[in-house]
Amino acid sequence: MITVTDSAKEQAIHLMNEDGKPGLFIRVGVEGGGCSGLTYQLKFDNEEKEGDKTFEDNGVKIVVDKKSYLYLIGTSLDYSGGLNGKGFVFNNPNAERTCGCGESFSI
Fold first, then answer.
1. Tens-place pLDDT, residues 3-60
2. What pLDDT does residue 23 have?
3. CA distances, 92 to each of 22, 63, 71, 77, 106 (Å)
4. Which of 41, 68, 84, 90 has a Cα-to-Cα distance from 55 of 20 to 30 A?
5. How many helices (H) and strands (E) does the chain have?
6. Three-state SS string across 22-61, please?
7. CA distances (Å), 104 to each of 9, 23, 74, 87, 93, in order?
8. What CATH number is associated with residue 91?
9. Rounded to an integer, what distance in angstroms lies between the CA atom of residue 32 and that of residue 15?
């Protein structure tokens, strides 16, 4: 399961409403690349694909493809607006190593 913090929920709803597209869900995934080997992907979507895993936490629907799910089991999606930069943050218990910016990881 992938969980969503209150701050991530508020920011996701804000961004969807700002774009005039309420009711979308958050699609998260993993791709090869970045300085640690794997990078996180996040976008708003409205189309589920065959094999997707779907979760709802804190009133937010999260969809992840089957392959990425293996890397993201137990991850918490947060939002940070602090001095280190604004953005969504993946707190992934499976990551053995992350880069300094937190956008890539390795297992």
1. 999 999 999 999 999 988 888 999 999 988 766 578 889 999 999 999 999 999 999 9
2. 84
3. 27, 16, 8, 9, 10
4. 84
5. 2, 9
6. CCCEEEEEEEECCCCCEEEEEEEECCCCCCCEEEEECCEE
7. 22, 28, 17, 14, 13
8. 2.60.300.12
9. 27
Give the list of residues 6+ apart from residue 43 with CB closer than 8 angstroms, or none: 26, 27
pTM of the model: 0.82
**Which domain range does residue 69 map to?**
3-106
Q: Is the pLDDT of residue 105 over 60?
A: no
Diameter of the chain by CA atoms? 39
Please give the single-letter amino acid code of residue 6: D
How many domains, the chain? 1
In whole angstroms, give the CA distance from residue 26 to residue 7: 14
The strand pair at 60-64 and 53-57 is best described as: antiparallel
